[in-house]
Amino acid sequence: MWASLRCPATALRLCRTFFSFPPFSPSQADVQKYSERKVLPYTARQLFDVVANVSLYPKFIPFCTGCRVLSSSDQASGRPYSMEVELTAGFLSFEECYVSEVTCVPFRSVQAIAKSSTPLFTSLSTTWNIQPTPSIHVEGNPLRVSQSVSEESMSNHTLVTFDLAYAFSNPVHAAVSSAFFSQVSKQMVNAFEKRCAEVYGSQKQ
């Protein structure tokens, strides 16, 4: 998920830079999806607290230059809550400004979905799923963790899955950016892992 302070919500369609192309209407087949997953040596609560703190994303998330939370529901009950966040994605020669609806399920998931299309994207969503490892199966098989990890420490190991889905407004953008975006999911998870190490200290896998 990407974010910014620079563009007001009333000027979302003015936040494109460098050049533009006539829009087209992509089909469901044009939606590009990437996913990355990794087991990290932190509890689900620790990981959720980092990924749900969207106001700090500019400090560590690639292509993110700032963040402004426009509104937020009650976060004190421990129940799912939502935020409306003004976001900007800056990458290659593009800069996109838009508003996303962020839905947080404490200690389980954080999902951000753009509320409307932008000059560059017709749709854009990111989803973080967080699962403690003892009950995890990946593609029907138990997820293996290093044999050096004791049974007691297994409860402090968590599977993080990051899913990115988007559709470009123009086929030229889609063609020139496909290779670039294929690396975004991995970069996001690596940045997230590095941030956790900064906040909680480096842990042994």
Automatic annotation (TrEMBL):
Name recorded for this polypeptide: Coenzyme Q-binding protein COQ10 START domain-containing protein
Domain of life: Eukaryota
Coiled-coil regions, chain positions: none
Organism of origin: Marasmius oreades (fairy-ring Marasmius)
Biological role stated in the UniProt entry: Required for the function of coenzyme Q in the respiratory chain. May serve as a chaperone or may be involved in the transport of Q6 from its site of synthesis to the catalytic sites of the respiratory complexes.
Subunit structure: Interacts with coenzyme Q.
Pfam family, one: Polyketide_cyc
GO terms for biological process, alphabetical: cellular respiration
Gene Ontology MF terms: ubiquinone binding
Domain Coenzyme Q-binding protein COQ10 START: from-to ranges: 40-193
GO-annotated cellular components: mitochondrion
Family to which the UniProt record says this protein belongs: Belongs to the COQ10 family.
